[in-house]
Write a structure and sequence with these properties.
about 375 residues; alpha/beta; seven-stranded mixed β-sheet; 13 helices; 13 strands; about 40% helix; binds pyridoxal-5'-phosphate
Length: about 375
């Protein structure tokens, strides 16, 4: 039987491999999972009654999303992000990952190139390869910040888009507004798209501010903005996100989404209407604990500054540690799990092959396990890296 050679060239996610190691080492505390520790607000659960009250809701609904949710999103974009629709459309998706796949399929032909920042979010790289395109990786700087000149230099006649994620997974970096403006302008000048993934928009610390490139004057025709309820509203399994797209992509994206999904799950869309009534304050309250945990991590890891570097990370709920010793990161992860009962994700998952990197995710932690987990990581690194 023939299997797609294209799919063979798609990387296999390392996260399930780490998951298997965790399962075979009971009692391991995971600093691997990129999810929030909490679930949806009560308003989301209550809104399900609205869904259930109307039997018509069990039928297929509009490809682009139910009008009630589209309206709430439009208001949110205007007041929080400074994005007005004017020549743009919103398409509700089954999460931001789906928004990214829709975007790549809508703007590329096989053999085209998409510029990703290194380290990349692995599902973005996988989506590009699945679409038979090439991911061109541009390194970020020592603080994992954008290098707009390097991005401009990487653009060729086959480039169709530049992707930025801010706040970033896997680094936690919040990109500077000036750099995002510069990248958006480079895209405009080059006649290519700027795909801006803003799944972590609410997760910023120490006064860092999130900026939406879609709010830039004149960005409407070449900017694709991706959002998600997964992190902010503890909605990961409900599968709701949305994309803001230029008018010219509306029909192509409706064709893709109609074929793959028909419509986003309507029960989840109603729950999303409820969640967004609770609004950003819901996430803000929940973030108090995550902010404290982040500080515990920073305090603890300062004690091993001779062994690992922690570049500045004012957003999301990640740190990407640079280990000074040149070790195989997967072997280091294995030792941390087997000998110290703490799990992190190796850097090659995010395309970082040059040195030894480890991603620490702290969003899923509760206060009671956080100190223990972080303590094990720091003690484990100290032991492994000094013997
Ligand atoms: C940058 C980024 N984009 C998108 C996603 C996926 O979001 P969703 O659950 O909305 O598909 C993730 C999840 O980890 C992410 O880190």
């Amino acid at each position: 039987m023939y299997n797609s050679s294209r799919m063979k060239s798609v990387q296999s996610p390392i996260i399930p491999v780490v998951g298997e190691l965790i399962r075979s080492n009971p009692g391991t505390i995971s600093l691997g999972q990129g999810v929030a520790y909490y679930g949806p607000p009560q308003q989301a659960i209550e809104a399900i009654q609205t869904f259930l009250a109307n039997p018509e809701n069990h039928k297929y609904k509009l490809v682009q999303g139910i009008p009630e949710l589209l309206k709430v999103i439009e208001q949110k974009l205007e007041t929080e992000n400074g994005i007005t629709l004017d020549g743009r459309r919103i398409v509700v998706t089954a999460g931001a990952n789906m928004g990214f796949m829709n975007a790549v399929l809508a703007i590329t032909d096989p053999g085209d190139q998409i510029i990703l920042q290194l380290p990349y979010y692995f599902n973005h790289e996988m989506a590009v390869v699945i679409a038979d395109c090439k991911a061109v990786c541009v390194p970020t700087d020592d603080d994992y910040q954008l290098q707009p000149e390097a991005i401009a230099a990487a653009i060729t006649g086959r480039t169709r888009a530049v992707v930025t994620i801010s706040p970033n997974n896997p680094t936690g970096a919040v990109y500077r507004e000036s750099d995002l403006r510069q990248v958006n302008e480079i895209c405009r000048r080059s006649g290519i798209y700027h795909i801006s993934d803003e799944a972590y928009e609410y997760f910023t610390y120490d006064g860092a501010r999130h900026f939406s490139p879609g709010s830039i004057d004149g960005s409407g025709r070449h900017t694709i903005s991706l959002f998600s309820l997964s992190k902010a509203y503890g909605f990961a399994s409900w599968r709701i996100g949305w994309m803001v797209i230029p008018e010219q992509l509306y029909m192509p994206i409706k064709k893709i989404q109609d074929t793959i999904l028909i419509c986003p799950p309507v029960i989840s869309q109603w729950a999303a209407v409820g969640a967004m009534k609770a609004g950003r304050q819901y996430c803000r309250d929940k973030m108090q604990m995550t902010t404290e945990i982040r500080q515990i991590f920073l305090d603890e890891v300062a004690g091993i500054a001779d062994l690992v570097t922690v570049p500045r990370a004012d957003g999301a709920f990640y740190f990407l540690l640079r280990v000074h010793e040149d070790l195989d990161p997967m072997e280091l992860v294995r030792q941390l799990i087997e000998r110290h009962k703490v799990a992190v994700i190796p850097g090659m998952t995010f395309g970082m092959e040059d040195k030894c990197y480890l991603r620490v995710a702290y969003g899923a932690l509760h206060k009671d396990t956080a100190a223990e987990g972080i303590g094990r990581l720091v003690k484990g690194l100290k032991q492994i890296l000094t013997t």
